[in-house]
Amino acid sequence: MEHVKSPAMGPPLPALPPRTGRLHAPGHVPLSDDPIHHLLRRVTFGVTPQLLAEVKHQGVTTWLNHQLNPQSVRDSACSHALKRFDLLNRNSLQLYRVLKARDKEYSWDAMEQVSQATLMRAVMSKRQLFEVMVDFWNNHFNVTCPSDKVWQVRAMHDNVVIRRHALGRFEDMLIASTKSPAMLLYLDNASSTGDNPNENLGRELLELHTVGLGYYTEHDMHQSALALTGLSVQDDDSSFFDYKPGNRYVGKLKVMGWHSANSSPTAGEAVATSYLKYLAHHPATAYRIAHKLAVRFVSDKPPTSLVNRMAGAYVQYDTAIVPMLKVLFSSHEFWTSLGQKVRRPYEWAVATMRTLGYTAVNDGNTDDWAGLIYQCNDLGMAPLAWDPPNGYPDTQAAWESTSTTLGQWRAAVALVQGWSADGKKGVRKLDVNLGFAGVSGNPTAGQLVDALSLRLIGQKLAPPHRKAIFHYYGVADHEHPEDWQLDHNQVEVLAFLILSSPVWSLR
Amino acid sequence: MSADAPTTRTGCGGQLSRRSLLSAAGLATVVSVGSSVFPIRAALATGPVPTDTLVVLFLRGGADWLSLVSPQGDPHYAAARPTIAVPAKNAIALDGFFGLHPNMDALKPFWDSGQLAFVHAAGSPDPSRSHFDAEYAIETGAYDKGRTYTGWLDRYLSALPGSGSFDAVAHSNALPQSLSGPAGALAIGGIGDFDLPDWLGKDYPVALHGLYAGISHPLARQANETLSAIATVRAVLSGNDSDSKSSAYPGTDLGRAFADVGQLIKANVGARVITLDYGGWDMHQDLGYGGGGQMGNSAGELGDAIGAFAKDMGSLLGNVTLVTITEFGRRVEENGSHGLDHGHGQAMLLLGGGTRGQKVYGRWPSLAPGALDQGDLAATTDIRSVFAEVLHDRMGASDAAVRQVFPHWNPVYTDAIAPR
């Protein structure tokens, strides 16, 4: 089958569907059913007034097509801001030399820059869908960042595995990941030998990266580990990928329906590659990747009909990712899934930073980006930091807890006050008072609450929830309270409350 | 980074121009709403069935119990691990066959006093050797290929009469699978931080509650649980004199977690089940030589934290049962990276409550190649038997309740636990 890389392939994208009105039943979170807001909650890290204007100006189809072809989206502000991360775009040999020269061999500096740059891009990049997909694949091919073994190679994993292939072909990404020094070190394949195999990568390759449990036996798993022997890293300063014939198991191999005579140690890399291609094209992999994407974009239990159509596109277009996404974004299942996802803590935090206008300032300073990573960490979800190899879970049940709820209430306070965003150490944010732009004259309490709600969460609060706020301030909706001259602190408290609304917790 | 406000902001909430709040009527409304909305958790004494507090410590990643409690009397042990076996001369002799890891010496006094036991060669019915599958199977306790999603601890809580008057706490940011389900549980990452900034004032939680009014989404349940948990934690902390916040715990994550658990138990908030996690056991590479290295560090942190907890509990330990679990043990033979791949059989630590201590329970299956289960320590005791015995003998669960927790299966008790 010929390789199909063009993002133009796949079904046409939809025109904007009508409002569904589905969520206005009693008991539901009263989320706005505006389809553009629904789309942007799912395919970006959060709505901003600028983004909304852009989508309305371009039209949904054009905007989405650009998002699926990220090179066509100008992103100069973010690119410029990223220049402060001097270790980000170096390969592992360059990193070794730079860090050694600074007497910081084995330091976590480069990995911390990867984490901070990941957050900065989620907050600032105009290539939002690309950043969402980078997050998705960084979790699928998780290499915990920061973690000890990968201090020198984690940045390279982000660049040449994840970012290079995030909207490309899954087969290419799988091969790149399995030969990525970061993965080989993180899951210990670098030291695996035919005589004494280390099964860590051989197992997770089957269970997590491709077909999933239920398609292979424990014997297949042993064979999988043997099929990967020899894939290793150079023992010199570079830590580049190295195929080591001396580590190679030689002899017949069979995993599920794949087999190889595997008779020569020097041909082992090609044998391993053929095994990876087999896995990439396995129908169980197609279904599993399609299902995982549908969980990301549609619901925790996505309709099988949709997953099957996406898996079909994966097969039809030779494991290309964009056609699957086009099936997804054209589906009625996507457009009628309003309110069926809950924002995970990191997504909640980034959406909050975006609506508060967080942005990079002061070339060179990264202190406050480090501070924002700590805040994400307090919420239990710093980017790329999940420890086990399966990546952060993406279902409501995995995250719903008193700790998550309290963490977000507290983070609303911290991010609105924004002492990590005073413009002095690399981050600045907007003043929440700007949420009253357009409110003039002698506004009622209701008008003020509505204006700030519209600005921060894109919709008004429902009547009982507006009432809770009026009660807190001791005013009535229609009052023009002479003594309710909102000073800055009081506006901030109003913003904390609005951002603590369950409306803001939905994706 | 602290989420507390700078001191200059102190009192901001109280300075808001809330006219009605200053009136007597307004204040009365807030107070009555507050007390009905955020009940402080009932103390255990008011519960219908007296039980221990069950503390379940999950060692995430697959802990190698052949290092932690090593079978020094089995000749195949040292042979299978030429570089990473715990040397006999370093192990702390327990019973002439097993040796405790040298860095777990803090546990030795409780072994000697008869409060500590192990069940070795225990294993889950799940054969997968997958972290995620094995954890899910153990925590749901159902072993029905994912059809059951509720946790075994949740089913225990649901099975007790008077469900709702007791409490379950996960010392973590997210609830573990074992507590998932209708009974509900609190996740508290650390009790010292579990609060809203003071300066937001006492009406702020009422306003938060109002933002979820009329909503039946799980987010609303979590909001109400959170407000209730905040009230409970405030009560715990205000009831504690500083001496009882024992400084005798190690400064590790696990030490701090156990210090919190100790505080919750001493405050008698009604915590019937408390879960903790301690990760970092997935040692595929460079496990450590002679009892040192990664395994030495982890064993030391584990032993020191549990030892400090046992000491802090003192006489209360008789009403606390601590049990450990890990998703699987490790391969018997070391791999080419001086580490251990995923295996099967494990050991479970039992401390306190009615533990009939100073004994390693379970039939030892031998590490002879022919006795292994796919290269791994074979399981001779089903882990559910140990859990079931704790629930039955210490946690007020009837035989029928045990069958609800672990359906379609009958336990074989080890007698490691004396009934309350």
Written overview of the protein:
The complex is a heterodimer of chains A (507) and B (420). Chain A is mostly helical and 507 residues long. In chain A, 51% of the residues lie in helices and 3% in strands. Chain A is built from 25 helices and 6 strands. In chain A, α8 packs antiparallel against α9 (170-178) and α11 packs across α12. The longest helix of chain A has 16 residues, at 109-124. The radius of gyration of chain A is 24 Å and the shape is globular. The relative contact order of chain A is 0.11. Chain B is globular, with a radius of gyration of 23 Å. Residues 1-37 and 41-47 of chain B have low confidence and may be disordered. In chain B, the strands form 2 sheets. In chain B, strands 1, 5, 6, 7, 8, 9, 10, 11 and 12 form a 9-stranded mixed sheet that branches. Chain B has a 3-stranded antiparallel sheet with strand order 2-4-3. In chain B, α8 (152-159) runs antiparallel to α14 and α11 (253-266) packs parallel to α12 (293-313). In chain B, a hairpin with a 4-residue loop joins β3 (92-93) and β4. At the A-B interface, α11, α19, α20, α21 and α23 of A face α1, α2, α7, β7 and α9 of B.
Question: Could you give a short description of this structure?
Answer:
The complex is a heterodimer of chains A (507) and B (420). Chain A is mainly α and 507 residues long.
Distance separating the two termini of chain A: 37 Å
Total number of helical segments of chain B?
14
Number of strands of chain B: 12
What's the N-to-C terminus distance of chain B? Answer: 45 Å
Q: What does the main sheet of chain A amount to?
A: 2 strands, antiparallel
What ranges of chain B have pLDDT less than 50 throughout 5 or more consecutive residues?
A: 1-37, 41-47
Which two protein chains have the largest interface (Cβ within 8 Å of the partner's Cβ), and how many residues from each?
Answer: A-B, 76 and 74 residues
Structural class, judged by helices and strands of chain B?
A: alpha/beta
Strand count, sense and barrel status of the largest sheet of chain B are: 9 strands, mixed
